[in-house]
Amino acid sequence: MAAVDVVVSGVGVAVSGIAGPDDLLRRTPAGAQGDDPARRLTGKGLRYKDRATRLALCAGRDALADAGLLNDPGLTVPSETVGVVVSSNYGNVDTICDTVSTIAAETYVGLSPMALPATASNVIASWLAIWFRLRGANLTMCNGPTSGLDAVNWGRLLVLAGRVDRVLVVGVEPANAPVRHLVSGGRSNGDDDLRLFDGAAALLLESAAAARDRGVEALAELGPYARKADQPAAVASIRRTDPRPVDMWFGAGAGGPAGMTEQTSYDLTAYHGHCSGALGVLQCVAGTAWLSGHDRGAVLASADGDGSDAAAALLLTAGTRPGPAAGDRR
């Protein structure tokens, strides 16, 4: 086995009806209501932030705090050591639609100069960096069904390349009228049986050495990642690289590891709706929550492009628990 280089040291979620990462494996009935997680944000500076950005800020804040990187004044580590990678396929489509409608009705003079920057595709990652003063590398993935797992892998690559010591990875999708219109293909009755994920999930990835230096617990360790033409090929590539038994599989349909039962396989889209770009990060957060309660184990996350794109897979394993050290997270 290759030495583990990157670990998960913090997780966070912002999903209505979900109290925390441990609840992600609890099936949420369709139409279930709960407190809106975006209401957790208070203070100035929220007026021109779309729903996806607000959800990402909530989940990102929880992941940073869980990793012990936030205190009252701000970050507990140098800001340039923390990067951001966001995965979202529909993120700010509502802002873009509103902007286009305003231009059509009033020309460009009807636009607010404060709202216009929010039409950029990287607005979510940018606001995460500004809000939490994360001055490291900043990326946005809009890569279809595999986007979430691709984002986790790109976060790992940034750490391995020495660009940063740690990366906040956030997967977020909003459920609003423009997104429903887009996902349903513009059908007027597209809302009848369409269940969309509305929320965000976040991981704090960190080099194993940086986590040890801070004396924090590694909740999970990142194993091999594969991107192939379809889900069976991606999973098979992972199994060839790391053949250890898989205790939990996140995926859908055929193509998972042999021996997986209903009790050990989860399709989070059936639990939380069509997750799109948030799916891979959501799977990794749920898997990390499960692994952090076990001394051993492996979780395989996978996302299929439904024949229209590639598929991706990523292995997570149980983290290590360091002895007492200065600056312990708890």
From TrEMBL:
Residue ranges the record marks as coiled coil: none
Superkingdom as given in the UniProt entry: Bacteria
Source organism of this protein record: Plantactinospora endophytica
Record-annotated Beta-ketoacyl synthase-like N-terminal domain positions: 47-179
SUPFAM superfamilies on file: Thiolase-like
Full protein name: Beta-ketoacyl synthase-like N-terminal domain-containing protein
UniProt KW keywords: Transferase
A Pfam family of this chain: ketoacyl-synt
